[in-house]
Amino acid sequence: MRTSRYTRQACDNCRRRKIKCDSQPPQCANCRSSNLECEYSLVRRKRGPKPCVSIPTPEIHSPSVSEYPDQAVTTTASASLTPRDEDVEEAERSTERTPFVTSLPLSSPGQEYRLVPIAEVTTLQTPSADTTASFEFQPARSSSSAVGLSLPLGHYPHNIHETLTSAIKNLGLPLEQTVRQCLCLYMEQCFPISPIIHLASLKKHVDLLLPSSRHLFQPAFPRVLPHDTEWSGPCLNDMRAFTLVTSACANICSKISTSVFTPGSKLVHHFLAASRGMLMCYEDQDVAHPDSSSLSLRVFQAVALHTLGKIRLSWYVLGHALRLALVMRLFDKASYSHLDQVEAQLRKNAFWILYVSDKSASVLNNVPTTLHDAHLDGSLLTVVSAVHDEDQPCLLEDAEEPLYKAPYESQIHIGFRLSQRLWSLAADLLHDIRILSRLNSKTSSMSGPPPIDSFQQGIIQSYMAFCSILDAMPPWLCDPGSHTVQDAQQSITNFQRRTFWIQRANLLVTFHCLRLVLLREASAQGFSAILGVTNDPDMLALRNTEISHELITIVTSTPFEALQANGEPLVEKLRQVGVILLEIAHRAESQTLSSRAKLLFSTLLDAISKLDSKVSDELSGDSSFSRV
Question: CA separation (Å) from 214 to 218, 219, 379?
Answer without folding.
Answer: 7, 11, 44
